[in-house]
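Consider what follows.

. . .
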Amino acid sequence: MARTAASDDDDDGPPTYTMARGNRRDPRLKDLGISCMLNTEVAALLAVIRRRPDPYSYLPPAVAAAEEAVFAGLIQSLKNLRALLFQPRHGAWRCSDPSMYLTPFLDVVQSEEVPPAATGVALSSVLKILRIDVFDECSPGARDAIQAILTAVTNCRIERIADSGAEEAVLLRVLQVLAALLRARAAPLLADSAVCTAVNTCFQVVQHAASSRGSELLQRTARHCMHEILQAVFSRLPDIRDDAADDDAAVTSGAGFGSRCMVDVFNFLCSLLLNATDMVMTPEGHGAFTSEEDVQLFALVLLNSAVELGGEAIGKHPKLLRLIQDDLFYHLIHFATECSPLVLSMICSTVLNLYNFLRRFLKLQLEAFFMFVILRVGSGASGLQLQEVAIEGLISFCRQPTFVIEMYVNYDCDPLLRNVYEEVGKLLCKAAYPLSNPMTTVQLQAFEGLVNMITTIADNVEVEKAPDQAAYNVEISEYRLFWLERWETGEDHGHETWVDFVRKRKLKKKKVAIAANHYNRDEKKGVEFLKLCYLVPTPPEPKSMAYFLRYSPGLDKVKIGEYLGDPDEFNLQVLKEFTETFDFTGSILDTALRTYLETFRLPGESQKIQRVLEHFSERFFDQQTAGVFATKDAAFILCYSVIMLNTDLHNPQVKKKMSEDDFIRNNRAINSGKDLPREYLSELFHSIASNAITMFSQSVTSIEMTTSRWGDLVNRSRSIEPFTPCDFKHKLSREVFIAVSGPAVSTLAAIFDYTDDEETLNQCVEGLISVARIARYGLDDVLDELLCCLCKFTTLLNPYSTTEETLFTFSNELKPRMSTLALFTIANRFGESVRGAWKNIVDCLLKLKRLKLLPQSVIEADGSVSSNSDRLSHRPKSELGVIFPSSHRGAGTSRHVSGMIGRFSQFLSLDNTTESLLSVGSEFENNLKIIQQCRIGSIFTDSGKLPDESLQNLGRALIFAAGGKGQKFSTPIEEEETVGFCWDLILLVSSANLHRFSSLWPHMHDCFMAVSQLPLFSPCPFAEKAIVALFKIAVKLLPGQPNPDRVAEELVCKSINLMWKLDKEILDTCCEGISECIVKLIMDHAGSVQTPIGWKTLLHLLSVTGRHPETFDQSVAALIKLMSDGAHINRFNYAACIEAAFGFAALKISPLEISTKILELMADSVKWLIQWNKSGYSDPGSTNSSNSSSWAEDASRMGNLATSMFIKLAEALRKTSLVRREEIRNQAVADLSRGFAIAAAGDLDLGPAGCLACFNLVIFAMVDDLHEKTLEYSRREGAERETRSMEGTLAAATQLLADVFVLFLGTLAQGPGFRTFWLGVLRRMDTCIKSDLAAGGGLGVMQELVPRMLKRMIVEMKDKEVLVQRDGDELWEITHIQIQWIAPAVKEELFPE
C-alpha cells in the first residue's frame, strides 16, 4: 500500500493507504518489514544477554566492573541500533551502509564474554540479514561488510564453550552463516583469500565435528555446508576470465574473487584425495574421518560438484585445467583399482563429467583411465563387485550420444594410441557372454551396454541411398609419414575429406599391426610389407623406421633393441630418430631412463648398450631444464653408472651390494671435473634402490601407472593432437561396427541361445536387428552370419528333431517364434545385402511348409482361402498363396525399423489383452498370425529391388532346394509338393525381375545345369514342375514389350529345352499346362517371339503336347492360325513351323479335314519362299542372331537358303505320304506335287544341286519307301486292300517323279551328276514296274503307268536335246539298254532302229 497525497490540514480522518497497481510491492513496505525484523532480532539478543546470571561475583570489583562495562557497551550498541530502526532515512536499507546494523551483531559474535546462547542468536540474526538480501553488491560499504561478517564468523571463539550441546548449536549457526555468505548477492566482493578462509573454516568444522565425536546432524551439516560453499564458488567460474593481468588487477583493485581461489580450493581437494590415509581417525583421536573410503568419497563429491558447475569454463583457465590433467586424473586412476565399489562409482561419475566438459584437453588422460581402470577392473581383475561398478560406469559412457564415434576416431584411428573403442567393445562382449543361466548381474549390465552401443551405431549409420560397394574401399597409393599427420581445417586437402583422412589412418594403423607381426617372425619380410603398403618409402628412411619401431603395437622389444644397437650407419640414424621421439623436458634422469627403456629391451652386448645410452644421454642433456650437467659426457657417464647400479642392487647373484656412498664416490668429478650435487645423486640412488629399472624384460603382463609413467604421459599430452569432438558419419559408423562385429554377433547369438527371460530376449532381438541395419551397408558376411544364427534358433532346421517335436517347440515356445519373425523381417527389410544366407532362409520356409505351419492360404496354388484364414486375414495372395502385405514400404529408415522391432514380443501377442499366446484361438490360428507378421510374400514380390548378387543367391537357393540338395523327403508326395512350391517361388521372383531377366537368367540356367549333375538328383518332379513354371515365365516375359529382348527369349527357351530333355515323359504328364501357354503365346503374342530357338522350342513342344486328345484342338487351331495368317512366319521359324505341321498332319487323331487343311497350307507356304527369295529375305526375322539352327547350316552348305527351306517342306510332305491313312498319303503326294509346281511357276531358283537334292532326299526316298511298304503289305495275308491302297500312293508318287522331272529337266541337265541321277530315275522305274508284278497281278497300274511316264520323260529329254544319239554318247547308250529291260513295249517308239 502507499499513502495518498492529501493535505495535512484536511480534517477528513486519518491518512489512508491504497494498494499499488500490479503485483509489485511498495519499497517502503519492504523497508518497514526489514526494520521490524531487525527490531525483533535486537530485542531477542538483548533479552538473552540480560538473562545471564551474575558471572563476576568471584572476580575482584575492578575486574568485574571492566567486564560489566564491556557488556554494557554491547547492550548500548544494540539499543542505539534499535533507536535508529524506525527513524526516517534518506533511502532504503539497501542504500545504507551495512556496517550500521551489522556491527552490533558481529561484536556479540566475536565477544568472549557473552553466553553461547547470545552468540547463537547473533549468528541467527546475521543469517537472516544475509538470506533476505538487506544489502547487495551495490550497497555502500558492502565489501567491508561482507568481509567483516566472514572475519567475525571465523573469529568466533568456539573453544570457550564448555557445554557440548551449546557448542554444537553455535557451530551449526556458523556453518549456516558461511553457506549464506557465499550465496549472498554481495559474495562476489569477497577476495580470493577470503573465499579460501571460508572453505578452510568450514573444513575445520568438519574436522572438529568428526574428531570430537559430534552428533550425526553436525557432521552431515558440516559436509553439506562444505558442498554448498563449493557450489557457490565454482558456479561463478563460467563468468570469470582467467588472465594474469586481470588477476593482478583484481588483487590491487579489490574487484572480488576469481579463479585463483578456485585453483587453491581445487588443489586442496586433490591433496585431500591424495592424503586420505592421513585423514583417517586414529585410536589417539587424531584425524577427522572414520575411514579412508569416507575421505575419498567426501573429496570426490566436492570435486565432482566443482567439475559439474565449472563445466567447459574450466578449459579457459590453464591453472585449473592443469590440476585436472596432471594431479586429479592421476589420483583417480591410482585409487580406482584399490578402492571400494562406492568410490569407484564416484570416480567413474567424475571422469564422465570430465569427458563431457573437457575431453578436448584430456585425450591421453582418458585413454589411461580406460586402459588402466575400466578395462582392467571391468575384466574382473579386481573382483566381482568392482567389475560390476566398472561395467556400469562404462555403460554410462556408452549412453553419451557421440562417445562411440569419438573413441574410435581419437584412439582407434590414431597410430600413436591404443584401440580404446575396440577394447571396450571386446570387454562388453566378453563380460556379457553367457556362461550360465540365468545370467549374472555383470553379464546383464554388459549386455545392456553392448546393445546400447550397437543401437547407437545403427541409428547413425542410416543414409538415404547406400553407396556402392566400391565406395567403402580405402586405398593407400603413396607414402606419407602418417604417424604425426594431422587434419588442419584451413589447409587444402584436394579431394580428400576428413572422413577419408580418418579412414586411411585407421587402415594404415591396421597394416602397421600386420607389419609388426611379420617383423617379429622375419625382419626382412616385415620391411618388405611396409614398403608394399607405402608405410615406409623405398628405400626406407631412418625417420619412418624409427616411428615404426617406436609406436608399432605388439612389436618384439628384443628385436627393437637389437636393431637399435646395430653399428650399421642406417641403424645409427634410426636410433637417433628413435631417441628424438621422446620428450624429456622437466624429467629427472631415472624417470627419463625408465621411460626410454620401457620401449625396447636393452641389448646385452656392452658396445650396443653404449651406443644406445650415448644417444639417450645426448637427448636428455639437450632437454635438461635444471642445468645439473655441464657436458653430454657427464650425462652419459651417470646413465651408465645408473645401469650398473640397477644391476648391482637387483641382481640376486651379486652378494655385496653397492651402498649410497659407493655410488656417490664412483661418480666424483664427472661433471667437467666437478662433482654432481650430492642430493641429486642420493635421490637417484634411493629411486633405483626402491624401484628397479626393468630393462631386460621383454614384456610386462600387467603394467601399473607409476609416477614416472604418468610424468611421461603428462609430457606427451602437451604436444599430442588434441581430442577431436565429432559426430557420426556414415562410412565411419560402418567401420566402427566392423571393429567389434565378430564378437558382438557371437555374443548376442549366445545370449539369445542361453537365456529364457523374455525381456532379455526382446533386447537381444533388438540388438540383432540393429546389427542387420548396419550390416546392410556392404557387410554381407556379417548379415549372413546373423541370419544363419537366427535360422538355427528357429529350431526348424534341427536334423535330430522329429516332425512332432519341431511342431510342438514352435507352437509352444517363444524363442523359435521370435527367431522366425526376426529372420523374415530382416530378409524383408535388408534382403539387398543377403548373400549366402538365402539358402538357410529358403530351408526354413520349406520346413514351415512341410510342418504345415504355413496356413492353407499360403500354400494353395489356386488362391483358395480356407474358412479359418478368411476370418483371420483379408490380404491379397499370390498364385502360390503366399500372403502379401496390403501395403509394402521399402527398407525404411532407422526410426521406422526400430519402431517396428522396438518391442518384439508385441508382434507375438495376438490381442491387446494380457492373455498368453497359447490361450487365444487354436494352435493353427496362432501360427498363422505369426506367419502373417513374417510377410513372406514380400520377400519374393519385392525381389525386383534386390541387387544382382543377392538376387542370384536367392535364385540359386530356390533352384537347389527344388533339386533336392540338402532336403530329405519322407514321401514322394512331400517331395512333389516341395519342388512345386520352390518353382512357384522361382516364378514369382522371375516375374518381379522381368526388367533384368537377361542378366539374371544366365546364372539361373547355370544352376539348372549344376542341379542336374547332383549325384542324387531326381529329374521327375523337378523337370515336371520346372517346365510348367518356365512356360509361365515365358508368357509373362514375351508379351507386351515394345522392344522384345531376344537374349531373354533365348535364355528361357534354353532352360525349357534343358528341362524336357532331362525327362521327356514330362511332355506327356504336363501337356495341358504346356499347351495352354504355347497356344496363348502363338494366338495372342506371336509377334513377340523373335528368335529361332524360341520358335523352334514353341512349335516343337506344340506338336509334341498336341498329340493328346485333350490338347489337340487348341494346339492345331493355333498352328493353323499361325500358318494361315503368315504374318509371323519368317525364314527363322519356317522349318520349325513345317515340322510342327507335319506332326499334326500325320497324327492319327487328326480329322481328315484338319490334316488336309494343314497339308494345303504347307504346299501354299512355297509362295513365302518365292517372296523371300525375290526380296532378299527381308522378312521380319532377317536380323542376325547369335544362335544358328541346323537348317541354316544346310543352307550354307547348299548355297541357297530357299532351297534348304523348300527341301524341309518337301521332306515333311514326303514323311506324311507314308502314314497309314490313304487319304492323307495321297493328299500329301498331291500337295507335294503342287508345291513343286508353285516353285517352278514362281521362278524359285533351286539350282542343279538343289534339284538333285530334292530328288535324292525327297522324291527318290518317297518312291523307295512306298515301294518297300507296298511289298511289305503284299506279303501279308489278308492285306490285299492295304496293298492296293499303298500301290495307288506309289503310282501317285511315281507320277510325281515324272512330273517334277519334266518341270526341272533343264536345271537338272546342267548338273555334273545328271548321268548318275538319270540312272537313279530309271532304276526306280524298273523297281516300280516290277513291284506291280510282285504284288500278284492286281490291277496292273504300274504296268501301264511306268511306260507312259518313261515315254514322256525321254521325249522331253529329246526335245530339250538332253538325250541325243551320237557316237560315244554314254547317256544315250545307257538309256537305250535300260528301256529294253524296263519297258520293251515303247522301245521301238522311242529308239527306232
